[in-house]
Design a protein that fits this description.
Blueprint: E1 16-21, E2 32-40, E3 46-52, E4 55-59, H1 64-71, E5 75-79, E6 86-87, E7 105-109, E8 112-121, E9 134-141, E10 148-152, E11 165-170, E12 183-187, H2 198-215
Antiparallel strand pairs: 1-2, 2-3, 3-4, 5-6, 5-7, 8-9, 8-11, 9-10, 11-12
Length: 219
């Protein structure tokens, strides 16, 4: 039996030598904030520093390639060597029953997607109030078998559509923290919204007051 928080015998514990802390000195966050990360000496492991009333460390372990990829402006998913199915968020084993839990392999995905489903956020937690309203889209990236949620920018909320083509847009390198917030969805360059419909008019009518309310929020 290994001791608590210690790796099994023969497995070396990662040594985290690259530490990034984005908190200004003397600042005590209230609410939710990603405040930095640390990367192991061999570059294989990353931990995220999350502050939510107190500081937490999220240890990504074997899924570290996803978050290291975010820092590099890449989307790292997994693929089954047998059937070829791709996954993002990644899966360590294939979910196809015919593949008998085959171990998947890491691959870089193309930064293209399509909407599987979406919702328009008219209310949120304290840290997101001033960004309302926004579209939270579940996108299928590069024809993967799994969908991932992120914000959809560059669109009027009432124009979002099922199966619409998307692109993945990363923040500038100096602003990335190895987190899902390092990127967002935007409509594909050649996408055009469909004509206004009764449903879209109804969503617009519900959404416009949110814009007005957000303008009243204090700094």
């Amino acid at each position: 039996m290994s001791r608590k928080n210690e790796p099994p015998e023969g497995i070396q514990k990662p040594k985290f030598t690259t530490v990034v802390d984005t908190r200004p000195e003397g600042v005590s966050e209230t609410g939710l904030a990603i405040v930095g990360y640390e990367i192991s000496e061999d570059g294989d492991r990353i931990n995220t520093k999350l502050h939510y009333d107190q500081l937490y460390t999220i240890r990504h372990g074997a899924n570290s390639p996803v978050f290291i990829g975010f820092l590099e402006g890449k989307l790292m998913g997994t693929q089954c060597p047998n059937c070829g199915d791709k996954f993002f968020p990644p899966r360590t084993v294939c979910w196809n029953l015919d593949c008998n839990l085959a171990a998947t392999e890491w691959i870089e995905l193309q930064p293209v997607a399509r909407i599987h489903t979406f919702t328009i956020a008219g209310w949120s937690g304290r840290s997101s109030l001033k960004r309302l309203p926004f579209v939270l889209a579940y996108g299928i990236i590069d024809e993967c078998k799994t969908a991932v949620a992120n914000e959809l920018h560059g669109i009027d909320p009432w124009d979002a559509e099922f199966d619409m083509p998307l692109k993945v847009v990363f923040k500038p390198a100096e602003e990335r923290l190895g987190a899902i917030t390092d990127w967002h969805f935007e409509p594909a360059d050649d996408w055009m919204p469909s004509p206004m419909t009764e449903t879209k008019e109804r969503m617009k009518k519900l959404t416009l007051p949110v814009y007005d309310w957000v303008k009243t929020l204090k700094e």
